[in-house]
Design brief:
single chain; Rossmann fold; 2 domains
C-alpha cells in the first residue's frame, strides 16, 4: 500500500486530489497539509511513501519543505505540483531531490501515473514542464527572473519576507540567528535592486515567485 500525503494551501485543490487518490487501488491517503511547515511536521509523524507538494504555499513553501523532508527521510518520494510551467522552480526542486513535477492542470490519470513511477524509483516530469526546461537550457537561460540571481537560502528568505513573515520567525524556521536573516535580506535587496519589503513583495508577485492568494495565509 502506497501511503500518500497531499500538501496544498487551497482547500478545493487539496481535497479534490485526496478524494481522487483515495479511490485508487493500492493508494492510501494518510494525511494532508496546508503549508510547507505543516508538511515537514507531518512527514516526521506519519509513515509516508509519497508527498504531493504544492510549490507555492504560505511560509517557506514547497522548495524548503522538500529539502527539509528529504534531509530527514530521503526515502520519501516528493512530487512537486504547480500551476505554472515557466518559472524557476522545476529545476531547483529537482536539484533539491524531488522525484517528480506535475502541473495542477494534469489529468487524474497523469497524477496517478506519476505516483506509480516515483514509487518505482523513476523520475516523472510533466511534458509541458520538461519542454520549458529544455527551452531554458537551449536558450542559455536568457531573460530570466531576477530571482534567479539568488542563492537557495536567499530565495527561501525572500519568499518568507514577501509572505509577511517576521525576521525572528524566519530565523526560527531555518534554525539560524536573526542577524543571519538580516544579512540574507541585505543581499537580496542588493541583488534585486530594491529597498523595501513592499518592493520585494510586488516583484515576487510580478515574477510569479509568490502566489497573491497565499498572502496572509495560515
Amino acid at each position: 500500500m502506497t501511503k500518500i500525503l497531499v500538501a496544498d494551501d487551497h482547500d478545493l485543490v487539496r481535497m479534490g486530489i485526496m478524494r481522487m487518490l483515495a479511490d485508487v487501488e493500492g493508494f492510501e491517503v494518510v494525511g494532508e497539509a496546508k503549508s510547507g511547515e505543516e508538511a515537514v511536521s507531518k512527514a516526521r509523524l506519519l509513515p509516508l511513501d509519497v508527498i504531493l507538494m504544492d510549490v507555492r504555499m504560505p511560509g517557506f513553501g514547497g522548495l524548503e519543505a522538500t529539502r527539509k523532508i528529504l534531509a530527514y527521510n530521503p526515502k520519501i518520494k516528493i512530487i512537486a505540483v504547480t500551476s505554472l510551467t515557466d518559472d524557476m522552480f522545476p529545476e531547483r526542486l529537482m536539484k533539491a531531490g524531488a522525484s517528480g513535477y506535475v502541473t495542477k492542470g494534469a489529468s487524474f490519470d497523469e497524477i496517478i501515473d506519476a505516483v506509480h513511477k516515483v514509487v518505482k524509483g523513476q523520475l516523472y516530469m510533466a511534458s509541458s514542464v520538461a519542454q520549458q526546461l529544455a527551452l531554458r537550457n537551449f536558450s542559455g537561460g536568457g531573460a530570466q527572473s531576477p530571482f534567479e540571481m539568488l542563492s537557495e537560502r536567499e530565495l527561501q528568505t525572500a519568499i518568507m519576507i514577501a509572505n509577511g513573515n517576521k525576521v525572528q520567525a524566519i530565523a526560527d524556521s531555518f534554525s539560524v540567528s536573526p542577524k543571519t536573516i538580516n544579512s540574507y535580506r541585505y543581499r537580496i535587496f542588493e541583488k534585486l535592486d530594491i529597498n523595501s519589503d513592499v518592493e520585494l513583495t510586488i516583484l515576487a508577485i510580478k515574477h510569479k515567485i509568490l502566489d497573491i492568494e497565499t498572502l496572509g495565509g495560515e
